[in-house]
Amino acid sequence: MSHSTTPTQLPRPISVKKIVLPDLVSHCTFKLRISRHWKQVTTETKKWLFKDNNLLGQKRNTYHGLKCGVLTSMCYPDAGYPQLRAVNDFLTYLFHIDNLSDDMDNRGTCSTADEVLNSLYHPHTWRSSARVGKMTRDYYKRVILTASPGAQQRFIETFDFFFQSVTQQALDRATGVIPDLESYIALRRDTSGCKPCWALIEYANNLDIPDEVMDHPTIRDLGEAANDLVTWSNDIFSYNVEQSKGDTHNMIPVVMNQEGVDLQTAVDFVGNMCKQSIDRFNEERSRLPSWGPEIDRDVAIYVDGLANWIVRSLHWSFESERYFGKKGRQVKATRVVDLLPKRTSS
């Protein structure tokens, strides 16, 4: 797939001061539920993350505004406390890695990937003093206590893909490349970090689904539709912060660049793609084959876990301060986002 090389700074007409978000929340009718352990996991993960004075000042404030414990507790509402805690540690750490990778060149992402992947492949023997490696080993040693071999394999493989794709993203950022839409979608399905989270649905619910079932086209399509919704909607919600930093690894500038359309048209275009991904998920769900009562029960729990992610990510994006600061509730009601000024690099 070819990349079209274009400058990182897309021109934006000066008159454009705001965008109107698509109404994705009312297009998604899945139920919202939350684990009764949400406050406890939030407290314990915070202690884990801040240990040894890790994250100080603004980074610590950013963590508080993230509200990751709420996201985890709604995406994995039926998990037992030990599993929910390990998943919340992972998700919080994933946001932390995502923030780090935004500021890294490809060499930085490669060295982080070495630490993380060695810690996953060799949790009992790999030794490193790097903080990210220690954190990886700590949560993963808890995961492998009860995760099925298949879930472990899927978790490590997809996390490996995540690092390969963020390395490509760092290269694109450094060279000012805006990929074409097809290339971007393929890359974004891995940079999202959703795929390891899907493996954790198996772990959190104590599922042991055979590999041939997880490899079935319908199960794969359901995972892809959920990934696309979570990821593409995230591109809409995070666009304002990213455009202020000049970051073009986002579907909106990709669409503007490829289709030659204005900003609001691109937002609407991506919004329609999000709605289609929810419809796609519902269609695939209605086509699920049967593998017998026991496997069907586990598959139903897994698919419910994907649906939890779809609905929960949409609501959490307005509750978290990551995208809209303190104005999330207001933005959710009006769907109007005032664009931030571009940051000037020092």
TrEMBL record:
Any one GO BP annotation for this protein: isoprenoid biosynthetic process
Cofactor or coenzyme needed: Mg(2+)
Pfam families associated with the record: Terpene_syn_C_2 (PF19086)
Transmembrane segments: none
Family annotation (InterPro entries): Isoprenoid_synthase_dom_sf, Terpene_cyclase-like_2
Top EC group: lyase
GO MF annotation list: metal ion binding; terpene synthase activity
The keyword Metal-binding appears for this protein: yes
EC number(s) given by UniProt: 4.2.3.-
Highest taxon in the source lineage: Eukaryota
Keywords: Lyase, Magnesium, Metal-binding
Similarity comment: family membership: Belongs to the terpene synthase family.
PANTHER family recorded: BETA-PINACENE SYNTHASE-RELATED, TERPENE SYNTHASE
Name this polypeptide is given: Terpene synthase
